[in-house]
Design goal:
Layout: E1 6-12, E2 32-33, E3 36-37, H1 38-49, E4 53-58, H2 62-72, E5 77-80, H3 89-95, E6 103-108, E7 111-113, H4 115-121, E8 130-134, E9 145-149, E10 155-160, E11 171-180, H5 182-199, H6 206-216, E12 221-224, E13 230-232, H7 236-248
Parallel strand pairs: 1-4, 1-6, 4-5, 8-12
Antiparallel strand pairs: 2-3, 6-11, 7-13, 8-11, 9-10, 9-11
Amino acid sequence: MNPKHVTGIILAAGLGSRLLPYTAMTPKAMQDLAGQTIIRRMVAWMRYLGIERLVVVTGYLSNKLEAHLREIDPNIILVKNEGFENTQRMVSLLCAKPYIQGSFLVLDGDYFYDKKVADEIRDLPHDCITVHATPKPSSYCIQDVIVKTDLEGKLTDLSKTAGTEALHEREYYFNSMLFCPEPFVDGFLTLGEELVKDLGHGRLHIEDVVLAYANQCGPVDVWLIDEPAWVEVDTPQELEAARNFIKNNPNSTI
């Protein structure tokens, strides 16, 4: 990856319903984590990685979130998913399509990552579309998306579970991080647009498009990160767990 030729995309349009009552008046991405909002930490992580072009897709309480982002960094490109109440993350990613230059790295706005994850992925070759995962369970958050690979480490399945389930052979926990090299951007997004038309915008997840791409278009790599040094903040319990992660790892977060 050459971060200077990568568009970073943070998807932060969702309602955050499972985080109520905290999200009743404040977007999920603006929840406080040890003195900084989740989105501030995510922007800092992207900048630490070396990404200069950054797009954030907003939706729920967009005025608040966009004002906050302008204070953080006026160079961030802000895009609103007008249909955020009834759409999944793939539609938010497609909202960012006109602003993508070069390759793209897409993350969810309710995650934050340890900076050592940036250190690890920065110099990866990323010759094809790549998802990132870990073989280890997290003690901080639920891991409810599992990827499965063939013997060569190529994606063969990607599925959502009811909670953190035990892994079987060549299965790993997905960390919601997707990298798409420039030669494959148009093909991936075009497939996403076609599937949105077929399945409906409210049903299509990014993971659905990743799996369809692997089955129909070309290989998808699964890069393994040994330690699950990230937290998804989806519930009040995970919000508290994220704060504990920062408390326990003060020098590794941004």
